[in-house]
C-alpha cells in the first residue's frame, strides 16, 4: 500500500493562524466589514495541520467549514480577535495573520436600530482599532516567526515593505487586489513573499498551493533563526 500525505515537517510546532473578515457593529442590525472570504487563512491552517503542527485558527465569520483537527476559535470583531490572539501568542512558534482586520470601528454601538432621518446625508464617527500584528511584533519572543499579509491596490512592494518594518515582521505576503486571479473572493492568488532582505514572487496558483509554498519558505527561514 503506497503511503499518501505530506511530509510531517511541522510536528511539535505550535502555529496560530488568523483568517476572515472582522465585523464592527453599528447597531443591532448593521455592521462594517470587508470582502475577505477566509480561504487563504483556512488553507494555511489546513496545510499546517497536514504537516503535523498543533494549529489554532482564530477566525472571523466566513461561509467555510472549520478545518478538521484544528483548534478553531470563532470571533466577530477586531476587539475579539485582539483578545483571542494576544492571550495565546506567547505560546506560539509561528503566527500567520491572514485575517482582514477592520482598521476602524464605530465609536458607539447603538442599542437600538438607528432610524433614518430627513437629512440627505448621515455620517458615523469611527475610531481606530488596535493593530494586533503591531502588538505581536513589539512582543515577539526569541525564535518566534511572525508573518503578516498585506492587501494593496497600488504601490504594493513599497507599502508592504513599510508594514514589514513597522510591525517588526519576519515575512509579509503581499497581494495586489487589482491583479486578475488574486485577492479576496477567488480560489486562486498571486502573492509576493517579502522578508527583510529578499523578495520571492509566486505565480498564479490555488490558495491551497500558495499555503504550501508559504510554509516551505517560513520553515526554511525559521531554521536559520
Ligand atoms: N492587521 C492587524 N490588526 C489591525 C489591522 C491589520 O493585525 N487592526 C494585520 C492584518 O491581519 C495583516 C496586516 O496587519 O496581516 C496588514 O494589514 P493591511 O490592512 O494590509 O495593512 P495595514 O497595516 O492595516 O495598513 P492599511 O490598511 O492602511 O494599508
Ligand atoms: Ca488595514
From TrEMBL:
Listed EC numbers: 4.1.1.36, 6.3.2.5
Cofactor note: Binds 1 FMN per subunit.
Function: Catalyzes two steps in the biosynthesis of coenzyme A. In the first step cysteine is conjugated to 4'-phosphopantothenate to form 4-phosphopantothenoylcysteine, in the latter compound is decarboxylated to form 4'-phosphopantotheine. Catalyzes two sequential steps in the biosynthesis of coenzyme A. In the first step cysteine is conjugated to 4'-phosphopantothenate to form 4-phosphopantothenoylcysteine. In the second step the latter compound is decarboxylated to form 4'-phosphopantotheine.
Reaction catalysis annotation: (R)-4'-phosphopantothenate + L-cysteine + CTP = N-[(R)-4-phosphopantothenoyl]-L-cysteine + CMP + diphosphate + H(+); N-[(R)-4-phosphopantothenoyl]-L-cysteine + H(+) = (R)-4'-phosphopantetheine + CO2
Transmembrane intervals: none
Organism: Dorea amylophila
Binding site for CTP: 103, 113, 149, 163, 167
Cofactor(s) recorded in Swiss-Prot or TrEMBL: Mg(2+); FMN
Molecular function (Gene Ontology), one example: phosphopantothenate--cysteine ligase activity
UniProt pathway: Cofactor biosynthesis; coenzyme A biosynthesis; CoA from (R)-pantothenate: step 3/5; Cofactor biosynthesis; coenzyme A biosynthesis; CoA from (R)-pantothenate: step 2/5
Key words of the record: Decarboxylase, Flavoprotein, FMN, Ligase, Lyase, Magnesium, Metal-binding, Multifunctional enzyme
Residues of the full protein shown: 176 to 400 of 400
Keyword Electron transport: no
Domain DNA/pantothenate metabolism flavoprotein C-terminal: 10-220
Ribosomal protein is among the record's keywords: no
Protein name per its UniProtKB record: Coenzyme A biosynthesis bifunctional protein CoaBC
Family per record: In the N-terminal section; belongs to the HFCD (homo-oligomeric flavin containing Cys decarboxylase) superfamily.
Region (Phosphopantothenate--cysteine ligase): 15-225
